[in-house]
Design goal:
single chain; mainly beta; 6-stranded mixed barrel; two-stranded parallel ribbon; 11 strands
Length: about 150
């Protein structure tokens, strides 16, 4: 089976979370995928660990703010860009990259100061896509977050 080619940055949808479009940086140097999340609040639902959080899907913008909720599948230690290790909640969610829906594990972290609201790590991409580092946005652009899907 021929794998789709994606660029070093791509449009991503997270339909399980109600996020219809976010720009993501493809980062084959990162093991895991990360999503910018804030106002993280952990709680239990039916005896399982959950997290409630908000997402600002647009770069350099605080609007829209999308409220999300997901089961925490694990906590993982991740080295941040400053070299410090931090414990982050990890959720499972469907991602749509270049029109291809895939199940992925995503850690939640504050990425406000970073250029992209989402990083796609190699564990998410491995065996599914070929990355062309000289090109961008090879997949179709989804509708904006304010528009119904």
């Amino acid at each position: 089976m021929k794998r789709p080619v994606i660029g070093w940055r791509e449009w991503v949808q997270l339909p399980d979370l109600g996020v219809f479009v976010v720009k993501a940086k493809v980062d084959t140097g990162a093991v895991t995928s990360s999503l910018h999340a804030f106002r993280l609040e952990r709680f239990e639902k039916d005896g399982l660990p959950y997290v409630r959080f908000e997402v600002h899907p647009r770069q350099r913008s605080k609007r829209p703010s999308i409220e999300c909720e997901a089961e925490v599948v694990k906590d993982t230690a991740v080295r941040n860009p400053g070299g410090r290790t931090e414990l982050r909640p990890v959720i499972a969610s469907t991602l749509v990259i270049a029109g291809q829906p895939i199940e992925a594990l995503i850690n939640l972290t504050g990425r406000d100061e970073m250029g992209f609201r989402m990083l796609l790590g190699r564990r998410t991409l491995r065996g599914r896509f070929v990355v062309d580092p000289g090109r961008s946005y090879l997949g179709p652009r989804p509708v904006r977050n304010e528009e119904p899907a």
